[in-house]
């Protein structure tokens, strides 16, 4: 008897941003800046740190999994029945940085979560770009 593997889906957003990775890293890791483009939070860029993201609709419980300053950041994302991982990768380019965000772990029966993330993440990243733009 064989069991088919449960196939999960991911949302991936990539943007070329005309700023260095160090500047983008600030917006990804400083709580007051994260609050401007994503949600209120108690984030710390420290592996194993548990933090929450909160908005009017509710919240997300998270745990930092990977911290590679100016290069990579990932955290577990747990809200009700969605357990996924959000990963950020910053790759320097000649014109700035290629920012890649992936949220992986959407189960086949989680279509509303997947659709929400597919629409939400591009908006959040556009807001992140506006925050980065005004940083010194």
TrEMBL record:
Coiled coil: none
Gene3D superfamilies in the cross-refs: 3.30.530.20
Any single Pfam family the record assigns to this protein: AHSA1
Signal peptide: none
CDD domains, sorted: SRPBCC_CalC_Aha1-like
Positions of the Activator of Hsp90 ATPase homologue 1/2-like C-terminal domain: 19-133
Family: Belongs to the AHA1 family.
The name this protein goes by in its record: SRPBCC domain-containing protein
